[in-house]
Design goal:
2 copies of one chain form a homodimer. Chain A is mostly beta strands. Chain A has one domain (2-106, 122-261): Acyl-CoA thioesterase, double hotdog domain (Porin). Helices cover 11% and strands 41% of the residues of chain A. In chain A, the strands form 2 sheets. In chain A, strands 1, 2, 5, 6, 7, 8, 9, 10, 11, 12, 13, 14, 15 and 16 form a 14-stranded antiparallel beta sheet that branches. Chain A has a two-stranded antiparallel sheet with strand order 3-4. In chain A, β1 (9-12) and β2 (15-20) form a beta hairpin.
Chain lengths: 264, 264
């Protein structure tokens, strides 16, 4: 599937080569969530028996561009049920992102679920607005949109026609364009795949991420994901963006928060 | 002031010695937020002109104990208005926490505030329950409680008398016991100072943190802080704990999320 080709790694023994695809360009660089999935895929092989991201924190140092990249991983501690790992993604000697992570085996966790959060209140698929309807000026600066089949809640797409709601919320049905099923590593991309929530505040343009932390809490069930972005603290030239990813079985499978700069 | 003595560092040039105080013991180790403030204090000196934590992610590798600790800091990138840094806190060669961070100058940020989050709905101080009333069995396993003057919302202290609300929420007025005023580094401790939110779910015991990320968004105004903890996704033996810290001027000065293991 396309996503697997785009995150493919060569090498091994804690040093890998990836080819960042131009299909993931958005604004001034290569999408941060995609970079995180590339790194996350390398980390999945770093500690035996611990293939799944549980907590991953990425700090973004410079804008990545399409082309070769080197991923280096390191095991900081591997004991008990989880391992603590670090990784870097570099291009031509410049660090793009640096990562700390906890990996483990999501399939081995207890099955208790006492989630009190509620899934995004999304209209049925056929009542939502597909990303294929996005204006050409948005698609041209965001080729990554063509990687996805997204169906936006019509209440949160006013920004596309000059009428942002002002609430700082976006939510959509989500899947990869070739219906490649979600897995724990792909969720690291999904949490950064929707447009910046600042669009809904009428602030367009690129919102560079300083830091993004994702928690993956379960293997996602096959099928459509529901993704919700929201910000509640836009201040001092920055904003936090919280993301929730719910799977087709109604489980909250990933949560993330990022700190980003407001678009200029 | 007491807190300044407890986070004091000796050394310099990216390698420091600290003395972790036994006054911060809780459950099986030394409080994670206190460790983060010690590291955060060293990082404040790592990049010239960038004294303030903006985003800090800590991964907890092993339980710290009172006594000497070594903090090592490293500048990963220092350019423009922020620096990306890393740090480790070790005891006897064992890593306790490893940290990535973005530091900058909070005083130099634009003054715009468009926060839509609302402060914790806390009753007046005199109607809240002081931590000095905590049962002796709690204070004996949590000496760190004596570092704080906390006034708990009476609606969220049922756990102290065997009647947890089941909502997964805790909120309190907060200040250091000697009225030492809050600052950006002390907020790294404040986000992990209240009891685990799992107490409000009737799950007692220590809840070891796997990962904690804090965003500090402004210098806090002097005076009492309002702190709110909540969890919405307790599942698979883990829970996320979101924390908000509001200052006396009504600004949301810090947000954090941690992933922790459920108490056994």
């Amino acid at each position: 599937m396309e996503f697997d080709r785009h995150i493919a790694l060569e090498g091994g023994d804690h040093e890998w080569t990836a080819e960042l695809s131009e299909g993931w360009v958005v604004g001034g660089g290569v999408n941060g969530g995609y970079q995180l999935a590339v790194v996350g895929s390398a980390l999945a092989q770093a500690a035996p028996g611990k293939p799944d991201p549980i907590a991953v924190s990425a700090y973004y140092l410079s804008a990545a561009r399409p082309g070769p990249a080197t991923v280096r991983t390191r095991v900081l501690r591997d004991g008990g049920s989880v391992a603590t790992l670090s990784a870097d993604l570099e291009q031509d000697g410049d660090a793009r992102i640096t990562v700390l992570a906890t990996y483990g085996d999501l399939g081995a966790l207890p099955e208790d679920v006492r989630t009190t959060a509620t899934p995004p209140d999304l209209p049925p698929l056929q009542e939502c607005v597909p990303n294929s309807m996005a204006p050409e000026e948005i698609r041209s600066i965001a080729p990554l949109m063509d990687r996805f089949d997204m169906r936006f809640d019509p209440r949160h797409v006013g920004w596309a026609v000059g009428q942002p709601s002002g609430n700082g919320e976006l939510q959509a049905w989500f899947r990869l364009v070739d219906e490649r099923e979600p897995d724990p590593v792909s969720l690291l991309m999904v949490v950064d795949a929707l447009p910046p929530v600042t669009f809904d505040l009428g602030m367009f343009g690129w919102a560079p991420t300083l830091e993004l932390t994702a928690h993956v809490r379960s293997h996602p069930a096959p099928g459509w994901l529901r993704v919700r972005h929201a910000t509640r603290n836009l201040a001092g030239g920055m904003f936090e963006e919280d993301c929730e990813v719910w799977d087709s079985a109604g489980r909250l499978v990933a949560q993330s928060r990022q700190l980003a700069r407001q678009p200029r």
